[in-house]
Amino acid sequence: xxVIDAAIMAASFMLAYFFxxxxxxxGPGVGVLPALDYFRLLLVIVPMYVLLYxxxxxxxxxxxxxxxxxxxxxxxxxSIGIAALIIILFLIIRELNYSRTVIGLFYIFxxxxxxxxxxxLRKGLRTIxxxxxxxxxxxxxGYSRAAEEYIDRLTDNPQWGYxxxxxxxxxxxxxxxxxxxxxxxxxxxxxxxxxxxxxDEVAITLSLKDxxxxxxxxGTCEKSGVHTKFIPDYNSLIPxxxxxxxxxxxxxxxxxxxxxxxxxxxxxxxxIDIVGSMxxxxxxxPIMLIxxxxxxxxxxxPVIFRQERVGLHNKPFSxxxxxxxxxxxxxxxKKAWTVRDDPRVTKVGRFLRxxxxxxxxxxxxxxxxxxxxxxxxxERPGWVEKFREEIPRYMVRHQVRPGLxxxxxxxxxxxxxxxxxxxxxxxxxxxxWTLGFDIKIILMTFFTGFINKxxx
Length: 456
Description:
A six-stranded mixed sheet has the order 3-4-2-1-5-6, with helices on both faces. Strands 7-8 form a two-stranded antiparallel ribbon. A two-stranded antiparallel ribbon has the order 9-10. It is an alpha/beta fold. The protein is 49% helix and 13% strand. Helix 7 packs parallel to helix 8. It has helices at residues 2-23, 35-40, 42-55, 67-92, 100-130, 145-156, 190-196, 214-224, 263-297, 330-333, 347-354, 362-368, 381-390, 407-410, 419-431, 435-449; strands at residues 136-141, 162-168, 177-178, 181-185, 201-204, 227-230, 243-247, 250-254, 304-310, 316-322, 372-374, 403-405.
């Protein structure tokens, strides 16, 4: 891989030189540095880029890594490399005669060619693995929920090239099958199996009640020299990317990592909310004016409907919406969610709900600081009290501001849909927040979030 990447770097740089001086121009011309001076730069570029590729994990195993993360690593390494090259050439050694266009074209060509090569390589390897070659054989030690989930993922993704050879467990009878993977025997058989079999990996998938055996199993695996991984049976309690601390050599795992508890992230998100809400109010003001007139004409009652919702740190606030139902008493309004063909919804209200235009007044909630452009949708206090007892980790969603749109909503989970599934998407957003993730959700909202079959 290093040799091929080095060849791509050299080819990309030479192609950039050729494209600049022989495609964009009729030859180098007077005063242009000789080609040899350009090509000598490869003596710096190639080793520097190879080190950057290593540091950005370009050469790490990628059987289970998604393609976009590999492409992101290539772009990251090349961006750092091109910045370093510019600093070295123009600021440190002050070689101002090198063409900026050549350097820019080299960046584009190198990213493009390297990414294309990796994509074709990945597709080729996955095809080979589906045909039964280039496989890794794994023994699972312990039968648990984690073991079943691990087998599910390996079975559903044959392109990874992992094969579960069997399971060892003290509580499940030998011969028991789960998706074609057989329980081979007891935990004590590990010392016999390891020397006799050519296993590539051992996955420790003990159930919580068997964790007393963990130390001895790890010791046995390490003595055999086989690569060992640990898949905890408490994955329902910790996030997929736990936040760890090192207290003088003592590892501490935080149960929940919420990026938006960081002051810098909070500030960035709030600035974007203020700018975004002001722009939204300005752009949609004609639509809101027309909607106000239609709501007023649809029947008696206020144009803006205020409803108590639970926000950041469990604090209640009044959320604004265009009124979409006939006027009701507070007791009637709190009885249930809106369902399909709900007789309480007006004709104007049904259109506003279907197009999500009834949510536009929440731009003022965002400007006030009650809400954010992106986040979990806020819920009424009565439902919060109900769900906090029924759904594990439900209250984690109140560690961030509720949003006008969210990851669950752009994936179709709104209206009368599974609340558990919605919470699953909300928690994923909370634990994996980035500014880019917010931008992605906002863009998806314009294509999928406004008109939705589950909004009624």
